[in-house]
Amino acid sequence: MPGDLRALPPAAREAIFSATEVEVDPGLGESASWQLEAIRRGHQIPGGGLLMFDSGFDRRLVALYGHPSTSGLGVLGEQGPIGGVKRLQSAALGYRADGSVVLPTFEIIATVASAGAGADGDYSAMTARDAIRPWVETAAANDMYVVLDLQPGRTDFLAQAKVYEEFLRLPHVGLALDPEWRLKPHQVHLGQVGTVDAAEVNQVVYWLAGVVRENALPQKLLIVHQFQTSMITNRKLIDTPPELAVLIQMDGQGSMRAKYASWNSLTSLSDAGQFHWGWKNFYDEDHPNATPEQVLELTPTPVFVSFQ
Predict the structure, then answer these.
(1) Residue 31 burial by CB count (10 A; 0-12/13-18/19+): exposed, middle or buried?
(2) Helix or strand (DSSP H, E) at 220
(3) DSSP, res 231
(4) Cα dist from 255 to 251, 258, 262, 282, 290, whole Å
(5) What is the pLDDT of residues 213-233, one digit of tens each?
(6) DSSP code of 124?
(7) CA angle 141, 76, 224 (to 5 degrees)
(8) In angstroms, rounded to a whole number, what is the distance separating the alpha carbons of residues 306 and 299?
(9) Three-class SS of 83-94
(10) How far apart are CA 68 and CA 134, in angstroms?
(11) What is the rounded distance in angstroms from the CA atom of residue 182 to the CA atom of residue 151?
C-alpha cells in the first residue's frame, strides 16, 4: 500500500495489528516504520482512526473552552468534568447536520495570561497538572478529546508545552497555542494583541511531532489561534508534518459582520489551504451567537468549533 499507512481501511489495520510479524517494503519510505508502529500499538483517536480528519469519515471536534478552576475564563469552568460531558451533548447539537461525526472535546487553558509578572517574570500562570488530570481522565473514559491551551506571556510556547508532556503522550490529548497572549519584552497583557513568528510555532511542531513518533501515537491536533493577520508572522512557513493535524482557529468575538470579516481575511491568504480551520463562539461577547447552520455554511468548513 503506497502512501500513509495510517489511512489504511480498518480491516487492513486490524490485520496488521493482529499479525505476529509484519514486513515493511523498503520502497514505502522513511515514514512507514513509525506509521506501522502506530498501527501495531493499537491506540486510536477517540471515535476511531489514526488520522484526525482523514479517517474515512468526516470528523468535527466541538469543544468547551475555559479553565477548570473558574467560570470567569470560559464555560468549561462552570461545571466539573462530568457536567462538562453532559453540556457538550447539548453544545454539539446541529454540528452533525452535514454528516460529520462529532468528537466532544475539553479545551483547557493550561497556562493563563496574568496581569502581574509573577515570580518568574513571564506574566503567565501555570495550572497544576493535578488540576487538569481529572478532566483528561474523564475525557478518556468517555471517548472524548482534550486540547491544552497555552497563554505564555513573555516565555515561549515550547517551554510551556514541555511542562505538560505527560498528557501530550496520551493519544487523546492535543495542544493549542494562543499568540494573543505571547508578549515581547516590556509588553504587558491587554496593552496590545500579542504575536508569534512561524519559527517559534515550528519549534513546537517539531517537538510535538517527535512525541507522536516516539510514543507511536495517532495523529495529534495542534491549534494556533488567530483573529488578526499580525498575530502570526510568516504564517506560510509553519510546517505541517504528517504526525500533526495543524489547524488555525479564528477566535475573534463581536458582531457576525466583524467575525465574518476576520474569517474571510484569514482564510483568503495564499497559505490557507495548508491548514485545517476552526471557529469560536463566545456566549457573552458575540451578538448574536452564530447558529450551527451559519458556522457550517462557512468556507472552508470548520472542523473545530469551540464555545467560551
Answers:
(1) middle
(2) strand 220-226
(3) G
(4) 13, 5, 11, 11, 9
(5) 999 999 999 999 999 999 999
(6) E
(7) 95
(8) 17
(9) HHHHHHHHHCCC
(10) 10
(11) 7
How far is residue 122 from each of residues 113, 220, 224, measured CA to CA in Å? 9, 28, 20
Q: Is the peptide bond before 288 cis (omega within 30 degrees of 0)?
A: yes
Which residues are bridge partners to 232 per DSSP?
196
Confidence of residue 200 (pLDDT cuts 50, 70, 90): very high
Angle at 186 between CA 181 and CA 187, to 5 degrees: 30
Place of cell 482564510: 267
> And the C-alpha cell for 24?
515493511
pLDDT tens by residue, 72-95: 999 999 999 999 999 999 999 999
Beta bridge partners of 137: none
- At position 106, the amino acid (one-letter code) is F
Cell of 228: 488578526
**Amino acid making up residue 77:** G
Instruction: Express each pLDDT in 233-247 by its tens digit.
Output: 999 999 999 999 999
pLDDT of 266: 97
Summarised one tens digit per residue, pLDDT across range 6-47 is 999 999 999 999 999 998 888 888 899 999 999 999 999 999
- Cα separation of the two ends of the chain: 43
For residue 122, what is its C-alpha cell?
513571564
Residue 246: strand pairing partners: 222
Place of cell 486490524: 14
Phi then psi for residue 109, to 5 deg, are: -70, 105
**Residue 123 CA, distance from chain mean position:** 23
DSSP string, 168-197: HTSTTEEEEE-GGGBPPTT--TTSS---EE
Is 60 within 8 Å of 47 (Cβ atoms)?
no
Task: Measure the CA–CA gap between 160 and 299, rounded to whole angstroms.
Answer: 33
Cα radius of gyration (the chain): 19
- Spatial distance between the Cα atoms of 80 and 5, rounded to a whole number of angstroms: 38
